[in-house]
Amino acid sequence: MKMSKQFPLNALRVFEAVARLGSFTRAGEELGMTQTAVSYQVKLIEESVGEPLFLRRPRQIALTDVGQRLAPRVTEAFEMLQEAVSSARGDIDSTLLISSTPTFASQWLARNIGSFQLAHPTIAVRLDTNDNLVDFAKESTDLAIRSGAGVWPGLDTHPLMRVEFSPMLSPALAETIGGIREPRDLLKLRIIDAGDPWWRLWFSAAGVKDPDLEGRPTSRLGAQSFEARAAIAGQGVAILTPEFYGDDVALGRLYQPFDLRCSDGCDYWLAYPHARRNTPKIRIFRDWILGELCPSVQFGADWVKERKAASAS
């Protein structure tokens, strides 16, 4: 592959948009260009590279091997340029948009974000709560906090919190059946979201092989925090992450009848695009939250190394 000393920067921007969107038409709409102009710019960059970058098929295009190698590098280069310009304008001390799962946002982030804002008053924090995957190329999100295995191509990830779960309920509800003495006693009560796979994992680990959850009423409250509120209100037994509800336990609103906790391998992770890893506001927030949660202290350095290795593989 031969690259001339002078190559058209605008053509690279058009190439990046076409490669990302998979369409000449959509790239033109995004850039405010006609499809003919987009095709011309792509042709210019192909001439500069000396090889075709796209395979043109009827109503479909695909990157060639050369195009596949070039596209992520071009995307990263433009993101680095954007960061440089933002830094020059002083935008680094502007708005940090964080996307988080509703439960982590309500049970940990909202309770602790004040210390971050006190330490960095020039960074305004915006919080978006949802469970959807973030498309960093199309959205203005800076960071995402998600539950999973931590393996997302193109993203740098850091383990935040190991997710373990166990049944929890209000003490008053437990007293209605004379207390909870063995795991099967839980089945005497309403199970909140009996379709949650966590229930089967926990009952199996507790030695209850036939919990008969299928015939129970199903409920989807949308977030663990809502299930916790229902449990506090005495509406049933919820399967929750105990770390999030220490205050409720201390106040006698919830209790965990058994020490047994289980994990399905999906933990909380911080994620952001690799190309933006050195953006000041991202780096500042990353260092703060890792310092607050200290995953290597909470769960052991070996676990953190294991999860990082899995993420990199």
UniProtKB/TrEMBL annotation:
It comes from the Bacteria. The keyword Transcription applies. GO terms for biological process: DNA-templated transcription. Pfam families: HTH_1, LysR_substrate. Residues 7-64 form the HTH lysR-type domain. One of its GO terms (molecular function) is sequence-specific DNA binding. Keywords: DNA-binding, Transcription, Transcription regulation. The keyword Mitochondrion does not apply. SUPFAM superfamilies: Periplasmic binding protein-like II, Winged helix' DNA-binding domain. PANTHER family: GLYCINE CLEAVAGE SYSTEM TRANSCRIPTIONAL ACTIVATOR, HTH-TYPE TRANSCRIPTIONAL REGULATOR. Belongs to the LysR transcriptional regulatory family. This is LysR family transcriptional regulator.
